[in-house]
């Protein structure tokens, strides 16, 4: 299993679109920056056929240290949540069933 990195995204843009490597890297950076800025404003980010990123507020609560049983206060905070689209779920589950995943690049 490999990890998708900024560099691998830039390389994919370079291969698929044909921009220069520098332009591809700049494009990926700008897209990621826009996503971060929107989430910082607590806006939802919806990517068609992929999913939705959102910031959710979690209230403060009392937690418990599992080793000692001591109660510990947990401060309120904001967390990032991701909800995958039905299209993404279907493609992932198709891969689990042994069926080939249609990536849209297979000629018919």
Provide structural commentary.
This protein has 108 residues and is of the alpha+beta class. The protein is 40% helix and 25% strand. The protein has a domain at 1-41. It contains 3 helices and 5 strands, in the order ααβββββα. The strands form 2 sheets. Strands 1-2-5 form a 3-stranded antiparallel sheet. A two-stranded antiparallel sheet has the order 3-4. Helix 1 (6-17) packs across helix 2 (21-40). It is elongated and about 55 Å long. The mean pLDDT is 90.
What would you call the structural class?
alpha+beta
Strand order, sheet with most strands: 1-2-5
Integer-rounded radius of gyration: 20 Å
Global mean pLDDT: 90
Number of helices: 3
Return the string of H and E elements: HHEEEEEH
Helix share, percent: 25-40%
Largest sheet: 3 strands, antiparallel
Query: What is the count of β-strands?
Result: 5
Head-to-tail CA distance between termini: 28 Å
The percentage of residues in β strands lies in: 25-35%
Low-confidence stretches: none
Shape: elongated
